[in-house]
């Protein structure tokens, strides 16, 4: 079968022919229905190098995946061939306290995971291929009735990651509160929808691109602010001088982090989701009183079930642009050149 592989750090992915996977006991092979193209893959191609992560190329890209059960290894119960499933992406050890709670994104025993601190498309073969090996049936979540795998695929990361970040700050988002989404691309446009579906907060979208801001407004944002030196002041104006209660930064460069610190309300949350490599000096007076600065990483399996539920009920709808497998590299080029709105999904 064809597969889009990253073969070495600091290189473009290439289409190769690889054998179709066979499930060993406890494993499952899915036929891929959709594999989302994430900006993290661009970081993998351009920014990372050996030694930074406990894994490396070669592997097939695609860490947000959904499809249909294709073959079951011995001993797998509770799944049927043909059943539509989403892949829970962060693969932990399955036995530590965090994994048992369904928070494999926080596995404390990564040496016992299928790959340490990675998953399919992150060290092991992912979904940019016709079939994908799932090393343990527990990584599959059955899709609710009526949810198409092409839409479910981006929900497993571009939906789950912002859902986890928003959920963590729910207590700071009562009616009257304001949330800011910096970077309204693949993750950010879903962050806007998730804020609208699960809180009564006013949502301000911030991006450098007019198309991304227009897209965020169509996805429910109340205000759109261009990301520049005046953005923090604009956010203060919109909030009557108070600042924003929760700021989610899906870019994570120096300029956006500084903007977030300058636009936050006292006791607010600033959450770094984007891995742009920026830093924010934190000291007593560098942020308004009692602002919490935090990172988030992906999400838990129970949260994925909640995200899929929101989507099945029409409360969350990824805006997707579909690419056939042999044009998957175009998806990355368009993302890199700022030509995409919403999420690119590769459909093998
Ligand atoms: P994307 O390319 O689809 O969207 C990024 C958006 O940010 C674009 O709309 C772009 O115009 C905008 N942008 C770029 N620079 C900006 C700036 N200075 N100010 C405001 N907006 C700006 O990317 P994506 O797939 O949504 O991923 C976003 C980030 O999240 C990436 O860094 C990715 O690696 C990261 N990520 C993190 C996690 C996690 O668990 N923490 C999970 C997935 C992705
Ligand atoms: Zn674990």
Automatic annotation (TrEMBL):
It comes from the Bacteria. One of its GO terms (molecular function) is alcohol dehydrogenase (NAD+) activity. SUPFAM superfamilies: GroES-like, NAD(P)-binding Rossmann-fold domains. The keyword DNA damage does not apply. Residues 2-346 form the Enoyl reductase (ER) domain. InterPro entries: ADH-like_C (IPR013149), ADH-like_N (IPR013154), ADH_Zn_CS (IPR002328), ER (IPR020843), GroES-like_sf (IPR011032), NAD(P)-bd_dom_sf (IPR036291). Its cofactor is Zn(2+). Its EC number is 1.1.1.1. Keywords: Metal-binding, Oxidoreductase, Zinc. The keyword Zinc applies. PANTHER family: ALCOHOL DEHYDROGENASE 1-RELATED (PTHR42940), VACUOLAR PROTEIN SORTING-ASSOCIATED PROTEIN 11 (PTHR42940:SF8). This is alcohol dehydrogenase.
């Amino acid at each position: 079968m064809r597969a889009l592989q990253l073969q070495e750090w600091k290189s473009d992915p290439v289409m190769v022919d690889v054998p179709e996977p066979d499930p060993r006991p406890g494993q499952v092979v899915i036929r891929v229905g959709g594999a989302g193209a994430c900006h993290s893959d661009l970081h993998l191609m351009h920014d990372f190098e050996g030694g930074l992560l406990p894994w490396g190329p070669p592997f097939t890209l695609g860490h947000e995946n959904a499809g249909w059960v294709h073959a079951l290894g011995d001993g797998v119960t509770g799944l049927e061939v043909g059943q539509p499933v989403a892949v829970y992406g962060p693969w932990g050890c399955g036995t530590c306290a965090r994994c048992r709670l369904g928070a494999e994104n926080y596995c404390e025993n990564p040496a016992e995971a299928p790959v340490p601190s990675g998953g399919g498309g992150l060290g092991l073969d992912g979904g940019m291929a016709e079939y994908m090996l799932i090393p343990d049936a527990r990584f599959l979540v059955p899709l609710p009735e009526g949810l198409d795998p092409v839409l479910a695929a981006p929900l497993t990361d571009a939906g789950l990651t912002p859902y986890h970040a928003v959920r963590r700050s729910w207590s700071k988002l009562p009616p009257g509160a304001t949330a800011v989404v910096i970077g309204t691309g693949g993750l950010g446009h879903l962050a806007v929808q998730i804020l609208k579906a699960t809180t009564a907060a006013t949502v301000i979208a911030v991006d450098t691109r007019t198309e991304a801001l227009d897209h965020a407004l169509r996805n429910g944002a109340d205000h759109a602010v261009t990301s520049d030196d005046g953005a923090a002041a604009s956010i203060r104006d919109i909030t009557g001088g108070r600042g924003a209660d929760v700021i989610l930064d899906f870019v994570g460069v120096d300029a956006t982090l500084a903007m977030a610190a300058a636009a936050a309300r006292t006791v607010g949350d600033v959450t770094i989701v984007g891995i742009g490599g920026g830093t924010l000096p934190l000291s007593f007076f560098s942020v308004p009183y009692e602002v919490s600065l935090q990172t988030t990483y992906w999400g838990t399996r129970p949260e994925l079930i909640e995200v899929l539920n929101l989507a099945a009920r029409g409360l969350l709808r990824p805006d997707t642009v579909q690419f056939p497998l042999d044009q998957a590299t175009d998806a990355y080029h368009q993302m890199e050149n700022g030509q995409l709105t919403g999420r690119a999904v590769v459909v093998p």
